[in-house]
Amino acid sequence: MSLATPTTAPQPAKIAVAPAPPGRPRTRLPALDGLRLVAALMVCLYHYTGRGGVVSASWHQNPAHVFPTLSRVAVYGCLGVEFFFVISGFVICMSSWGRSLGDFFRSRVARLYPAYWAALVLITGASLVLPAVVHAVRLDEFLVNLTMLQQPMGAPRVLGVCWTLWVEVRFYALFALLVVLPGVTYRRVVLFCSVWTLAAVLSTSAGGVWTELVVMPEYAPYFIGGLALYLVHRFGNQALPWGIVALSWILGLRMATEGLWHAGSPRNPYVVMLVVTLAYGAVAAVAAGWTRGAAWPWLTTAGALTYPFYLVHEHLGWFVIRVLHRGWGLPPWPTLAVTVLAMLGLARLIHRFVETPFGPRLKRALKTS
Predict the structure, then answer these.
(1) Do the beta carbons of residue 256 and residue 273 sit within 8 Å?
(2) Maximum separation of any 2 CA atoms in the chain, in Å
(3) Do 242 and 297 touch, CB atoms closer than 8 A?
(4) What residue spans of the chain are helical by DSSP H?
């Protein structure tokens, strides 16, 4: 008796494949890369001219006295972090679509760690040369910093900005377990945004260490807004994702204003709300396709430099300001310009000699393992 399939057997019905959704996104959005650099420069100006503390020692006085006009604008630069989170929600949703959990994990590790390790080594070296700017940490503390888990472990941070990475890592974990693991779809992203919004609102009123650690009510609206804006970008103008964006924007306004303004604060609450609105609006312009013409190659380069620049600009920038201004007597404005350009140049070197060669190698090694 033959085991071959009979030729008279009924053929399976053909399944109609739906056409690609309107506005199918490109794998790279240059305008989004440009927005990343804008957000990084906002944070940079805040750290150099919009706050006191260690940077005051580098300028030899409060930056508000050195840059009386610029400082009044730079105090709002800290909102670049919220801007980053909106962009991050958009990018994570875009980059995880159609990927397995393993692919998502490998891409995040290869993207985050090589430049991060390089920045740790550079700043630790600087702390040994000029401890007045950055205090060196013990070996055990440095090793914990290598894991990016120094905050939950209670170890001192080598990088001042790495607290935002801990926020990002928790967002990645939530999104990976609840959306990427079962498979990214429109419905799952909408459900994730809806449940996270409700949990964030409830945890804001209920409180609790664990809920704040997992739900992150202070930052959830920005990630949720970015996720929903990517749905707009991928599937076109629909009421539901735009409704999620609108709700996350309203909650984001409240969180930013509550966190950054109080009686006696140098920040105007209406300016805080304006900056947050502009951040949402800028990413919304990308989502709606209004920036398709912005495809200049330098924007891609700007996007590549943003992460290493963000990592090294704070402490190493204070180091350079102290040397140029207090040590060599360079005037304030040239010092500021040279410092920003020096940090961008250093970011370029990290991208060229660390991220480009070692990121793909790390990704391949994890895949082999």
Answers:
(1) yes
(2) 96
(3) no
(4) 30-49, 54-59, 63-66, 68-74, 80-96, 101-129, 139-147, 150-153, 162-175, 186-206, 209-215, 220-235, 239-260, 269-287, 297-321, 332-350, 356-368
Structure tokens at 329: 């007597």
Q: Residues 103-109: what's their mean pLDDT?
A: 95
Q: How far apart are CA 256 and CA 261, in angstroms?
A: 8
- Quickly tell me which residue has 């008279």 as its tokens: 8
The residue assigned the tokens 């490998």 is: 106
Residue 209 has pLDDT above 90, yes or no: no
3-state secondary structure 170-197: HHHHHHHHHHHCCCCCHHHHHHHHHHHH
CA distances from 332 to 60, 64, 65, 179, 350 (A): 11, 12, 11, 49, 27
User: For position 11, what pLDDT does the model report?
Assistant: 40
How confident is residue 259, by pLDDT bands cut at 50, 70 and 90?
confident
Q: Do residues 30 and 292 lie in contact, with contact meaning Cβ atoms separated by under 8 Å?
A: no
CB 160 within 8 A of CB 149: no
Q: Please name the residue that has the structure tokens 């590790």.
A: 109
Residue closest to 256 by CA, chosen among 231, 210, 225: 225
How many CA atoms does the CB half-sphere of 139 hold within 13 Å? 0
Location of structure tokens 């989502």: 287
Decide: helix, strand or coil at residue 20. coil
Q: What is the pTM (predicted TM-score) of this model?
A: 0.90
Among 250, 298, 292, 294, which residue's Cα sits nearest to residue 273? 250
Separation between Cα atoms, residue 10 and residue 7, nearest integer Å: 8
The number of C-alpha atoms within 13 Å of 115 and in the hemisphere containing its C-beta is: 26
At residue 18, does pLDDT exceed 60? no
Neighbouring residues of 127: CB distance < 8 A, sequence distance ≥ 6: 133, 134, 135, 136, 137, 158, 315
pLDDT at 203 over 70: yes
CB 237 within 8 A of CB 284: no
Cβ atoms within 10 Å of 253's Cβ, excluding its own: 18
| 267-271: long-range contacts, CB 8 A cutoff, minimum separation 24 | 267/75, 267/76, 271/76
